[in-house]
Amino acid sequence: MDNQSSNFIRDIIIKDLESGKRNEVVTRFPPEPNGYLHIGHAKSIFLNFSLADEFKGKTNLRFDDTNPLKEDVEFVNSIKEDVKWLGYEWEGLFFASDYFEEMYNRAVLLIKNGLAYVDDLSADEIRSLRGTLTEPGQESPYRNRSVDENLDLFERMRAGEFGNGEKVLRAKIDMKSPNINLRDPVIYRISHTTHHNTGDKWCIYPMYAFAHPIEDAIEGVTHSICTIEFEDQRPLYNWVVEKCEMESQPQQIEFGRLNITNTVMSKRKLKQLVEEGYVDGWDDPRMPTISGLRRKGFTPEAIRNFIGETGVSKGSGAVDEQMLEHFVREDLKLKAPRTMGVLKPLKVVITNYPEGQVEWLDAEINPENPDMGIRQIPFSREIYIEQDDFMENPPSKYFRLFPGNEVRLKHAYFIKCEDVIKDEEGNVVELHCTYDPETKSGSGFTGRKVKGTIHWVEATNAVAAEFRLYEPLILDETPEDGDDEGKTFLDHVNPNSLEVQNGFIEPNMKDVKGQDKFQFFRHGYFNADPKNTASGPIVFNRIVSLKSSFKL
Ligand code: ATP
Ligand code: MG
């Protein structure tokens, strides 16, 4: 499997296997289907699957669908697609909602053993009696109901006799516990809501803290890996496993969340960006979602290598987004064909080239990977170059085209700028150049040297293309809500995160398919947009530019 730097979770697993505490490794990736997966989830996927794989264990994909209000099959389907695309195969595919009956029975067991009670207090009242970090909580007046009364009320909750919020089931643990999570946490609530999987069968739903350990135990999960914010819940997790008399004893292990600079990493915030129109859907290439990264052109290999490099710790500092870009460059370097594309075209007429003539020049598809062979590109009297590769009054050290200067056209000839054609407003609309047939690329010409090499596309055969260039979505490196001025992350959204250019590409590119990736000379790596249609220009998303200051 992928490279993986040493991590403390693996050390725990090795110890458990050596000591005989465990004789197998079973993990699970447990997303809630309330949004699309982001690259933070990829870290959890990577850890769960690669750790189990390393010890010949297995990993389930389990949808933690205990909150019907926010969940949907659209999300279930996208999550399955993303996990597969990342390159992982799950052992079992489960839904927490398939275990509702069993969870109910375990709750009844708690009641019978005097370990759970039905409470009539409202959510606000429960909160106000819960105490604080320094003050103990106070017991609810309903805490000492008899077992029979609790059994009867819980059954009637299930039967739908009560409205939302009228009653809850609470674990009876310790209102004075220094760990607030153990102060009689709510384990069931009433919600008259249709569930994406169980329909209207249930109107009571288990809370995450109660449901999750039971789900893990039912599936025989040995190492239940989760993010650090659940650390304080671990005693409750263990309490549930023990008091519900689960046969299997999963063990919760927490690690630090993955965060990346200049983006947000929570489904709630990503959903807000989508719903409030800051981006064009969950798969907008600016999103840190798996589907967004895929559409931008990132590869599963690059994402996995990146995650492996981030390591595993309890801390969760933000990783520089440039590190992710580094890994996609590395992955595409040998795979992506080279090509030329002009983003902002300026027409050049080569006045001494015969009219009507087209010659086909050989060009390497990938000089770093000669096995990819040769492509042919046309050359004629009319070409496009980049507007930025010409300056009428250049500063010193400008080695590209200016009046009287000579440059090399990549794969073709030297050309010299003879004349600048302008429109009535004085804008440069065309250049007249001459070429020197002696200087043909590959001919071994050594007569003189030029300092600039620019790219170009032959004009009469060129194919229209739209180039989408992306900048970070968020301008703050580590955006946080509620800073001094009460700003939210939305105040840091970059208004210029997308730049669109309309230009031209080589004619041999006319049949590209969505997700085909290329390195455009000097511009970087691009991905053919999967949503391209037959009509209109071919859209390319820039994955990453060529240069970076990032060093591993
Ligand atoms: P979000 O806040 O983005 O909704 P979540 O933790 O609520 O995230 P879940 O669907 O519950 O999302 O997550 C599935 C698994 O992925 C959990 O085990 C969770 O801990 C893990 N996970 C979520 N975000 C990250 C992250 N940024 N880094 C590492 N693991 C993560
Ligand atoms: Mg969640």
Number of helices: 12
- CATH superfamily of the largest domain, by name, is HUPs
The percentage helix is 10-25%
Structure ligands: adenosine-5'-triphosphate, magnesium ion
Rg, Å, rounded = 31 Å
How many β strands by DSSP? 27
Strand order of the largest sheet: 12-25-26-27-23-24-13
Can you put this structure into words, describing what you see?
This protein is an alpha/beta fold. The chain has 3 domains: 8-257, Rossmann fold, CATH 3.40.50.620; 267-337 and 466-544, Glutamyl-trna Synthetase, Domain 2 (Glutamyl-tRNA Synthetase, domain 2), CATH 1.10.1160.10; 341-455, Ribosomal Protein L25, Chain P, CATH 2.40.240.10. The chain has helices spanning 8-19, 39-54, 73-85, 100-112, 123-128, 147-158, 208-218, 234-243, 267-275, 290-296, 300-310, 321-332, and strands at residues 26-29, 58-63, 93-95, 116-119, 168-171, 186-190, 204-206, 223-227, 251-255, 259-260, 318-319, 338-339, 341-342, 345-350, 358-364, 374-380, 382-386, 406-409, 414-422, 428-436, 453-454, 456-458, 463-470, 498-505, 517-520, 524-528, 538-544. The strands form 7 sheets. The protein has a 7-stranded mixed β-sheet with strand order 12-25-26-27-23-24-13. Helix 2 (39-54) crosses helix 11, helix 7 (208-218) packs across helix 8 and helix 11 crosses helix 12 (321-332). It is elongated. The two termini are 21 Å apart. The mean pLDDT is 95. The chain binds adenosine-5'-triphosphate (ATP) and magnesium ion (MG). The site of adenosine-5'-triphosphate has 14 residues, from helix 2 and strand 8. Residues 30-32, 40-41, 43-44, 226-227, 257-258, 265-267 line the site of adenosine-5'-triphosphate.
